[in-house]
Amino acid sequence: MTLAVVDALREKHREFFTGFWTLLISVSLSFIAGIYLGSVNDVLLLIPGLMVLVTPSINMRGAIAGILTSRLSSSMHLGAFEVEFGRNTELGDNLRASLILTVIISAALAVFGKIICMGTGTPVIGIAEMIIISVISGTLAGILVTVVGVLVSIVCYRKFWDLDMVGAPAVTTLGDIVTLPFLVMTALLVTGLPFAGKAVLGCIVLAMLLWAVISFKRGTRTMMDVLREGLPLLLPLSLLGITAGVLYTNQLDALISAAAVLILISPFMNGCGSIGGILTSRIGTEMHMGMIDPVLFPQKTVLKHFGENYIYAVIFLPLMGAISHYAALLLGITTPGLLLMVLLSLAAGLLVVTAMNLLGYYTAVITYRRGFDPDNFGVPVVTSSIDLIGATCLLAVMMLLL
Fold this sequence. Notes:
This protein is mainly α. The chain has one domain. The protein has helices at 3-39, 41-46, 50-77, 90-120, 127-159, 163-191, 195-217, 221-250, 252-257, 260-288, 300-331, 338-369, 374-401. Helix 3 (50-77) crosses helix 13, helix 6 (163-191) crosses helix 10 (260-288) and helix 12 packs antiparallel against helix 13 (374-401). It is globular. The N and C termini lie far apart (53 Å).
């Protein structure tokens, strides 16, 4: 065996285990959000419509930061990345665009959520409260996730690590952990305030929205590229997360009666989304570098990526179900049992990973062929679609097994 072949095998194994350890850490940490969600089920019942915002809020944090890390990864591979935060720098402009997206999308989530709840007859709080809760909690969580995404990118750049294998899992995991507590605490604060307090917060939110709109119009070329491609993509994709939130809300009584499933939701979505995020980031980078052609039938390299995703899934999905069961026992909340939780996670997860493989690949193919940057589309499409696909698969398998 030649030295070149040995080096290639080592590189392949290094990439696989980089993804493995990243997923292990991200899934483990996402149980913090899952356990928190299971422990605040009374708040979800107390504030009508709050569950509708849970899924899309978590998803959009990861999607926006995922765009950032994916674009920065491609710039590293192309030799255009520098640790500079000024205007007209790759890092600085992408960072500003991420913050603008966060504010605008947070407001849109509240408006869309209110409209869909009214259309489906789902109980929900007032539109002003929805917007204040969504924008304030989303912006605070978004700033934290974005800053961490930038720090991860800088570390990967200086350590010569592949950001494609680290970026998406890191930011989606942090999005899971910080978004839900910010959302719940902000909701409790806002709904408990008198009218004058809500008016003050409303003025702050209005100022944030005006800043986002003005910054949008005065953005640099890089910022405009991100915003012009990101907003038309994320706005409709947010509807998928809201629809998933409505599905969970309408099944909230069943979820609370088997509360271990509430614990499972966050690591399940995070794990499957991170697997899909790794895939789409790698494919986007490899298309930029000419290593993969945007063709109808996936090439051998892509099929290997698919296979690695199934290996990840078979390892992590049963583990998620088992940990959710034992976490429920420790918290003293209901669980359908170890075997059923493992089967639920594995069966629903394999369906979702299959969908993520196909969706991630063909999203990159279609966007690349149409002259768009796959980095702006791959992670948001995967992480947003997983909300609805994941919720549908998880609830369908839950009804079959439980």
